[in-house]
Amino acid sequence: MNTATLSAGTLALLLLFFSLFFQTFQQTDKLQEEDNPITRFQNYLRINTAHPTPDYLSAISYLKSQAQSIGNLQTQIFEFAPLKPLLLITWKGSNPTLPSILLNSHLDSVPAEPSKWIHSPFSAVRSSDGKIYARGSQDDKCIGMQYLEAIRNLQLKQDFQPLRTIHISYVPDEEIGGFDGAAKFAASKEFRDLNVGFMLDEGQASVNDEFRVFYADRSPWHLIIKAVGMPGHGSKLFDNSAMENLMKSVEVMSRFRENQFDLVKAGLKANSEVISVNPVYMKAGTPSPTGFVMNMQPSEAEAGFDVRLPPTADPDLLRRKIADEWAPATRNMMYQISERGPIRDNMGGPLMTATNGSNPWWAVFENAITTAGGKLAKPEILASTTDARYMRQMGIPTLGFSPMTNTPILLHDHNEFLKDSVYLRGIEIYESIIGSLSSFNEVSTF
Ligand SMILES: [Zn+2]
């Protein structure tokens, strides 16, 4: 063996050593990349739980594995309706006789049109400026994972022990009304057994640096009004045709809509504080092979409206208005109201959670945000609806809250995204909230 061979051998060994070193280094780097709060969030976002075929089983199995990786958490799966599983994760408190805390989020999301997105809606691509693009990134997979990440940190970094039991519920079907999800869950024995004292559900993004919080939802009604009358020749002037009567109603309703909208435009009320009445369809006319028969006034005409009532509105008063003014029998009108969810709680009160001294949980929640260095905006009514209404119906104080500041409101929009820094900040906020709520012991009956 000569010197040259030796050097070649040494060189080969050195090369082997370095290549092994870099491989290990790369692997470690990859492992780190694969398991941190952001990648865990991205992995959840990649599970397609959009309607009409939400993959609930994969979502639940992923969340369950996350809970197992934290440890010290129990998991249960319920099925209150066939093929509509619900996951409950529980962190037992040191005093389980105290009413518990429930953190809710829904598993499903609305559909997305991939061709209208800059990144595929279930790829959860993270752009160079930290935006994570995915359907559900704001509504509401962020909170579903943030709850778990906050608990992970409380357990593993802070060695925190809750006094009250904390539950996280992952419910199906919120986006299609929650009738087979949160509604059945809230009405179940299993729910009663949880002895929930206070609950958090989803909220909405805030475009400034104040966190938004919601103490009520508006209740949706589907209203159909229908007019019948004598048909007649298109050239004839006569009273009480179906179209004439329907159009009179539409005029009256448009005036009501305008009055409500004026209050918003004048800044006297928020969008969510007025009754909205929006026409969504009209059905009339006699079809012909080329369109509609033009020389005949039809004997039936119908219109549909999306109506939303704030909890401060009087539903009986609105029902009377519909019967007397919007679809009066004196004009051959009929109507059908389909209430999409509860409008009053089980005690007959409006579906609202107090945000003052009468609700001891409010101060705990508010202080937790301040302690974490956050600012809270004036509490609002949500213009749309969430599952929170079913819990408020049971008399449980429930706030809608998603910790997203300086974020455009993109729920149900194309290119829904959430910035990584905003997501991580949200975890810190929940650490403070969950820590405070689960330690709250001043009034043990609450
Ligand atoms: Zn939602």
UniProtKB/TrEMBL annotation:
Task: Please provide, in alphabetical order, the Gene Ontology terms of the cellular component aspect for this entry.
Answer: cytoplasm
Record InterPro entries: Aminoacylase-1_M20A, N-acyl_aa_amidohydrolase, Peptidase_M20
Highest taxon of the lineage: Eukaryota
Q: Where is the active site?
A: D108, E174 (proton acceptor)
One biological process GO term for this chain? amino acid metabolic process
**Database matches in PANTHER family:** AMINOACYLASE-1, PUTATIVE-RELATED
Q: NCBIfam families under this entry?
A: Ac-peptdase-euk
Name recorded for this polypeptide: Uncharacterized protein
Q: Which organism is it from?
A: Aquilegia coerulea
